[in-house]
TrEMBL record:
Residue intervals of the SnoaL-like domain: 868-987
Organism: Fusarium pseudoanthophilum
Species lineage: Eukaryota, Fungi, Dikarya, Ascomycota, Pezizomycotina
Pfam families per the UniProt record, alphabetical: Kelch_KLHDC2_KLHL20_DRC7, SnoaL_4
Name of protein: SnoaL-like domain-containing protein
GO term, biological process aspect, one: glucosinolate metabolic process
Comp. bias intervals (Polar residues): 561-570
Length: 1003
């Protein structure tokens, strides 16, 4: 029965539920689960967190542009399964705080604040201009009031904050009816420099380097001169004050001396980038400050070439040289995935995270690697063995080294020592030369409020289990009644206090709007961004890049982890299906070698690009692109099909990436309903695979461009090369796939050409021995056949030519079934250089894991929506069902990482302790739990308690259905809480009855 207070407290949730039921489209707007791409946002780094605010976002359909109303963050102390910092979207931000695009987050690492300045509203009139600050310590927003009248809110300008000085700056940007209330007329770019002093909350409206309006460029801070320098470059000029775009050449750099409030202009040399806007960049420097190196990425173009850029450039100061970066690897292009309106944030001087961005060519509908929330990492010093700039994020990398690209231009070594420290044509101003010889101090500013030693980490809590001292040995199940039984029956008698990781649905999720118009040279675009702007912000500018690097650079916990339920706002894990660095899965140490040598590899926006050399067949070096869901393959890319990959026999998991793999990796992977995509020459085709059980064998000719359905029996499809088979085919003309007119069913390949054919396993009689290949596939052989194979003397890594000579030599002496199996297993060995195993003992398998499919699959979240109390009760049900089904994933969806269990004097703290002491022992039993009399009390929007009665019956494993077996029944009493996905935080049991023999609990 609701009290008025309870009703008031739950009314917003009820209202939200009704709204979601009325408009199901909004129910899809989960910033993690449904993410497609983001752009035009603002970002900043404070205390090992990269904060992301506002901007525009596309969800799964990638067509509706929505305002992003969330304040989220990436945890820079951790790495998710995608090799990037984990993403969370659970920070405070209500509807009274503006959600804008093209603004800036000024970070104050001393007082632990973020300041939101500028930006424009999308498809709505701008709010009155107040300076809002996010208090990191207390997870709340506050207003610092309106600035003086002469300070207006601009969008898509460029700015930085300098925490050591307590100062923030913003130069240029668009003034329009999307950013300034009451604005009339066309957009106009500002020519002013705004300064904000954080400790005194005072503003200054200063002049720029000249009277020209500028926008969509980039600004960084370098600690050169008396107090540091602001460096501005690129973007657009607004020469006529009406939004008409003119490129600002990148060979002209503007510097502002913050200590002396003086502007300088300097010309550059070197490989100057093409004119661009809406790009992003960040600065780092050598340890001895002999060079300051500014990395930029991407950006949009100007007419007539408006496509944009997918490349990296470096501006090194004080020599003021532009250097073309190491991406793309070919030097005569600007990349295949032009991107703009992203943000760049340098982390610990050594890495730069590029977040989001929107594509500006034919890939504009492509999502930006949703599994890692569009986060891409640039290793600025290329500190990895591949010497690659796009790499997986490394939380412990905190030292920058000067890469060879820069050292070649300025001299010195990885620590600095640059020998070229002046521009080729000299400094344009004598004073600038003097300032460049000085290094700004780190400052002596102190906090004006109590901040503690570090920022409190926002929820969700860490996923690192902190084990306690553990339970006493008396807690072993089934030995005695008393504290032991009471503890194990925690799953029955629960006093659970659960906290809810609530989704951010209580906020406005944005209103759908049509896609923005294409970039224009001039004119007014209303509230949909004046003249397609770009964004630059406090060490966070517009630009968007790639993902990660090789498996050797992935976090140690990235592979072979058990799947755990994700937090409401944490990126779900990507499966382990990504191809390893050597393109051959090491199923067991010593049993696999790669057919190819990996020369280099980069992963860019989920696309794996390999440079390979085939060492088995003697093919020349070639390049292959392996891309999820899309196919881009140069003419030299050979033998590649696009399929869903199985690793160690595991089925692909939800959201797992699709990868292109060389044809010789497609063994045992094609399953019913899969779609195979092939690239042949310049033509692409996609054909669903519909296998029948009639063992019908159809055609697949990779080289001619035809690709038809193939069928298989229960044991799979195998790929071999015709040129290795002539003697076997002469002996028994089996049904082989048709290749072309020179090779029909039952005929050998007279030319011996290098073509692929498909064989199908036959229904073989059950022999007592099997031949096991390196993928764990077993082949049945007769006793005589196996002995003949043993005498052949196969050795690990044997040359393929010698191998097939041996096969041909004995095939005519073998039974037909033995010869076919030998052909298949040794083809596998030759194609992947897999060591084969043979044995005169009963069959065995080589470490292949198979997923056991349960009769019932119990999801962690139920479809159709739950009211608050149902959702709370569901946490209790998930917990006991997890025990009944021995389902660890379901258990982890029901209890928190720091679960605190107290039962009859025994305790367990944390998931590891709880599983070892309770779950692993009880879940192996034959058991059933029943809950009744569930009563729930909601104490706050985040906390609740629940009580219920519980009855559980336990039997020894495998004897649960035997009426004569020993049983043990217990009863207990509970408490709990749940919501979107509530979880139990404390679990207290009060045992009320016992019946039967507790020895049943011993298992």
């Amino acid at each position: 029965m609701y009290s008025p207070r309870t009703f008031a407290r739950t009314f917003p949730s009820v209202l939200l539920l009704v709204w979601l039921l009325l408009d199901t489209s909004l129910g899809q707007n989960d910033p993690v689960k449904n993410f497609c791409r983001r752009w035009g946002h603002q970002s900043a780094v404070v205390d090992r967190k990269l904060y992301i605010d506002g901007g525009l976002i596309n969800y799964e359909d990638a067509t509706n542009n929505l305002t992003n109303t969330f304040l989220s963050f990436n945890d820079l102390d951790a790495v998710n399964s995608g090799g990037m910092p984990p993403f969370h979207a659970n920070l405070s931000k209500n509807d009274t705080i503006p959600s804008v695009n093209g603004g800036i987050l000024w970070e104050d690492s001393i007082n632990k604040r973020l300041y939101l300045y500028g930006g424009e509203s999308y498809q709505s009139r701008p709010l009155s201009f107040d300076l809002y600050s996010y208090d990191i310590i207390y997870n709340q927003w506050v207003s610092f009031g309106a600035p003086p009248q002469e300070v207006q809110a601009a969008s898509y300008g460029a700015g930085v904050s300098i925490s050591s000085r307590g100062e923030a700056y913003y130069y240029g940007g668009w003034l329009s009816n999307a950013s300034v209330p009451g604005w009339s007329g066309p957009p106009r770019a500002s020519n002013g420099l705004i300064k904000y002093e954080m400790d005194s909350n005072t503003w200054s409206n200063m002049t720029g380097p000249d009277d020209k309006g500028r926008a969509e460029g980039a600004m960084v801070f370098i600690p050169a001169g008396d107090g540091g320098m602001l460096v501005y470059f690129g973007g657009a000029l607004d020469l006529y004050g009406n939004g008409t775009l003119t490129p600002q050449p990148l060979d002209e750099i503007f510097l502002f001396d913050v200590a002396n409030a003086k502007w300088y202009t300097q010309k550059t040399s070197g490989n100057t980038p093409q004119d661009r806007r809406r790009f992003c960049g960040g600065a780092t420097w050598a340890k001895d400050h002999s060079s300051y190196n500014i990395y930029i990425y991407g950006g949009g173009g100007f007419p007539p070439d408006t496509t944009g850029y997918d490349d990296i450039y470096i501006l090194t100061i004080p020599s003021f040289q532009w250097i073309r970066g190491p991406y793309p690897t070919y030097k005569n292009g600007t990349g295949a995935f032009p991107k703009s309106m992203m943000s760049c944030n340098v982390v610990d001087d050594a890495q730069m995270l590029v977040i989001g961005g929107t594509y500006s060519n034919a890939t504009d509908k492509v999502c930006d690697v949703p599994a890692i929330q569009g986060a891409h990492n640039m290793n600025l010093g290329k500190q990895n063995k591949e010497d690659a700039i796009w790499a997986l994020y490394q939380p412990s990398l905190t030292t920058y080294i000067v890469p060879i690209d820069i050292r070649t231009a300025v001299g010195g070594n990885s620590a600095g020592g640059a020998t070229t420290t002046t521009p080729i044509s000299g400094f344009d101003a004598p004073d600038l030369a003097v300032q460049m010889e000085r290094t700004a101090g780190s400052g002596t500013r102190t906090a004006t409020r109590v901040t503690g030693t570090s920022t409190k980490k926002p929820s969700p809590p860490s996923h690192t289990t902190k084990p306690s001292s553990g339970l006493s040995t008396g807690a072993i199940a089934g030995i005695a009644v008393g504290s032991t039984v009471a503890f194990i029956l925690a799953l029955l008698g629960i006093g659970c206090l659960v906290y809810q990781r609530r989704k951010h649905y209580s906020q406005n999720h944005g209103v759908a709007a049509p896609p923005p118009p294409p970039m224009t040279v001039s004119g007014v675009t209303g509230w949909t961004s004046p003249v397609s702007p770009s964004y630059t912000g406090g060490q966070a500018w517009p630009a968007g890049p790639p993902s990660e690097l090789t498996s050797e650079h992935r976090s140690p916990d990235m592979h072979h982890q058990s799947m755990t339920p994700k937090n409401d706002f944490q990126v779900s894990r990507v499966g382990d299906g990504a191809p390893p660095a050597e393109l051959a899965v090491k199923y067991s140490a010593g049993y696999t070698k790669s057919i190819v040598k990996l020369i280099s590899r980069q992963i860019y926006r989920g696309q794996d690009t390999y440079h390979l050399r085939d060492e088995l067949f003697g093919l020349p070096e070639y390049r292959g692109h392996f891309i999820p869901q899309r196919r881009v393959c140069p003419s030299e890319c050979i033998s590649a099909l696009h399929i869903r990959v199985e690793t160690l026999g595991r089925k692909p998991m939800a959201n797992e990436q699709l990868y292109d793999l060389p044809l010789f990796r497609i063994i045992n992977t094609i399953e019913l309903g899969d779609e195979i995509r092939a690239q042949v020459s310049d033509q692409s085709m996609s054909i669903p695979v519909r296998f029948s059980q009639n063992r019908q064998e159809k055609v697949m000719d990779y080289y001619s461009g035809t690709f038809t359905n193939a069928s298989r029996n229960e044991t799979g499809v195998f790929f071999v090369q015709v040129k290795f088979l002539p003697k076997l085919l002469e002996r028994f003309p089996t049904k082989v796939v048709k290749i072309d007119d020179t090779f029909q069913y039952g005929q050998k390949d007279k030319t011996g050409a290098n073509r692929w054919v498909v064989f199908h396993d036959r229904a073989l009689k059950p022999f007592q021995h099997r031949f096991v290949d390196g993928l764990g596939k077993a082949y049945q052989f007769s006793q005589t056949g196996l002995e003949m194979i043993s005498k052949m003397g196969f050795t690990p890594g044997e040359d393929s030519g010698k191998l097939f000579n041996k096969i041909n030599a004995i095939s005519s002496q073998m039974l037909e079934t033995d010869a076919i199996n030998l052909l298949l297993v040794t083809s596998m060995m030759a194609i992947s250089r897999i060591t084969i195993l043979y044995s005169l003992r009963p069959p065995h398998f080589l470490g292949v894991s198979r997923t056991i499919i349960k009769a019932f699959i119990l999801p962690a979240e139920l479809t159709g929506g739950l009211v608050e109390r149902e959702a709370i009760g569901d946490a209790l049900y998930r917990a006991v069902l997890a025990f009944d089904h021995a389902d660890r994933a379901l258990l982890l969806s029901a209890i928190t990482e720091d679960i605190d269990a107290k039962m009859s004097g025994s305790t367990a703290h944390g998931i590891a302790d709880f599983r070892a002491a309770v779950f692993d022992r009880v879940s192996k039993l034959d058991k059933t739990h029943f809950l009744s009399n569930v009563r729930i009390s909601i104490t706050s929007s985040r906390m609740a308690t629940a009580t219920c009665s519980a009855l559980a019956q336990h039997g020894r494993p495998g004897h649960g259905v035997d009426p004569r077996s020993i049983k043990f029944t217990s009863g207990a009493f509970y408490d709990c809480k749940v919501g979107d996905l509530w979880k139990m935080k404390t679990w207290k049991a009060s045992i009320t009855r016992l019946d039967g023999d507790p020895i049943a609990l011993a298992g």
